[in-house]
Amino acid sequence: MKKRDSAETREKILRTAELVFAERGFDGARVDDIAKRAGVNKALIYYYFESKDEILNELFETLMEDGGQVQSESLTSIPDLSQKDMYRQFFEKSLEFALKHRSLIKIALIESMKANSKHSNLLKRCAAIIDTEVEYIGKVYEDKGLDFPYTKKDFVSMEFFMGVMPIFNYAVYFDKLMEMYEMSEEELKEQFIEAFRTTHVLNHQNKYWEKQ
What we know:
Blueprint: H1 3-24, H2 31-38, H3 42-48, H4 52-75, H5 88-100, H6 102-112, H7 122-143, H8 152-172, H9 174-181, H10 185-211
C-alpha cells in the first residue's frame, strides 16, 4: 500500500469512527460498525489501530492539539488587554472550532465523567491548552513591566471553569439552545460572546487595570 493511500485510509477510519462514536456513544460503538460505515475490512482497522480505545485516544489528541493551535494563533491577534473587544477574534475562532468538533467534545465530556474510563484525562488535556494562555498573558504583563496578578493555581481554575468549559458547553448544547430559545446561529453566538465578555474577559481586564 502506498504511503499516501495508507495515510488517507487511516484518516478515513478516524473520521468515520468519530461519526459512529457520536451516533452510538463510545461504549455502544463496535469496530464492525466503523468498518461497515467506512467501507473497509475490519482487519484493516486493526492493522492501523489496536482497538477502538486507541482510535478514540488519537481523535482526542488531535482535537486538543488542533485546539491549542487555534488558541495560539488567536491569542497573537490580541493587541492590547485593555481593549473592550480584544478577545473578539479569539472568541469567533474558538467557537467555530468547538462547533466543528462538537460531537467529539461531547464524547470527551461523557468519557471524562466515567470513573473507570480509559479516556478520562480531559483535565490534563485542557491544562495543556491553559498553559499556553498563561504563557502568552504572562508575557504581555512582563513586556509592560507589570507583575502577573495570578497564581498558577488561580489562573488554571479560572480558565477551566470560566473559559474552557463554557466554550465546550456552548458547542455541545448549541442546537438544543437554538431550538429552545428560537434563536438563529448568529443570535446565539452574540449572546454567548457578550456573556463571556462580561464575565471571563472583564475579570482579565480588571486585573490588568489594577496593575496599571
